[in-house]
Amino acid sequence: MRPMRFVPLAAALAAALGASSASAQNLLALYEAARAQDAAWQSARAQYEANLARADQSRAGILPTANLSSSYSRTQADIVGVPPTPGVSNPNYFGTQNTTLSASQPLYRPANWYTWQQGKRQADLARAQLVVAEQDLIIRISQAYFDVLAAQDTLAFVRAQKTAVGEQLASAKRNFEVGTSTITDTREAQARYDLVVAQEIAADNDLRVKKLALDTLAGTSNVNPVPVASAIELGPPQPDDIEAWVTQAEAASPAVQQARIGLDVAKLETEKARAGHKPTLDLQASYGVIRNINGTSTNPLSPSSTRPTIAQAGLVLNVPIFAGFATQNRVRETLSLEDKAQADLDNARRTVTQNTRAAYLGLVSGQGQVRALEAAEASSQSALDANRLGYQVGVRINIDVLNAQSQLFQTKRDLAQARYNVLLGQLKLRQANGTLVPDDLARLNALVTK
User: Fold this and answer.
1) Backbone angles phi, psi at 238, to 5 degrees
2) How far apart are the first and last CA of the chain?
3) What's the CATH class of domain 4-61+110-277+325-449?
4) CA–CA separation, 176 vs 170, rounded Å?
């Protein structure tokens, strides 16, 4: 494939936009800046951390639990016929202090085990969701970057066209003054000049809007992206086989991974619902200390203070017998949700396959469009030169030259946009099949700025 030649516009853009190459930022630097402050990325990152913490909570159901409890109570009892105890000012008050340490270890709780397995899959789901957010950030910053470069090119082309049309207008006026052309040439040139001035205003506003979007994404002001290198070579996608990209998407696409994890979670939910029919077995132990002050209300003649201790340990078996058909209906519900998850997985696979094919074909088509526009640029330049010569010798009129100029600059603008689309298409293809990583952005950055 022939190298994709980029017309150097740095000098023209610097003069037109007041840009300074010393303060320009490359694509990778802007991506790192966006990672540090982009609200959508930060939100996804925080959600990822929250999802991991929630997944870790599921392990609690299979781990032991321990509790320490303490209580104090005071009882007043009027007991008829009981003589007062010597040395006790108020024999009708009895105090009780109770401190208990208890622990429990699940031995057989299948529902809790399935919940733990779901938690591990939820952690995998959180990672896949973070990958989607990362890929989205790469595309958003790249799109904004190339949008600004395309807007700068458009403004530079429009201003160059304005200069060319202005020269043609001045020539038409001079020829009219000396009587070698009609007033029609002057008016046609004036109309075209006024149209280009309107286009310049629109292009300047579009550039301001695109730069504002890039500033917002990068979290800084007056971002000045580094222009693309004057000549780069982009071959066909590697591998140069659309089916290879589709096959790769089955394993790599985070969208497919999320749907597959969703199906796994749904299957585990069904098993957890079926566990409602199964018994549970726990090991429980406790140790308590009770202090009775002034005896007890049921035994006021006991010593003034006692301190019994109670230690217990045992197995607790719970066998479900009937729950009002709640378990059966829960199983029916989860089976339907499992079917839904399977359908979602099939839909995700089809969507990713379609998007991958579309991105691949779009990239190949874009490369072909670039080659066609390069040829059209050369032809348009030749046509303009021929029309200018014909106008000088009188076989072409002014409108022919103006139309040729307009066609040339429109072709230049379309060619620049097509080249940026190809560069962005490389990233979008990898996003479509799920293999886009920051290293791809680093390689593209090195390619276009060297």
Assistant:
1) -115, 120
2) 20
3) mainly alpha
4) 10
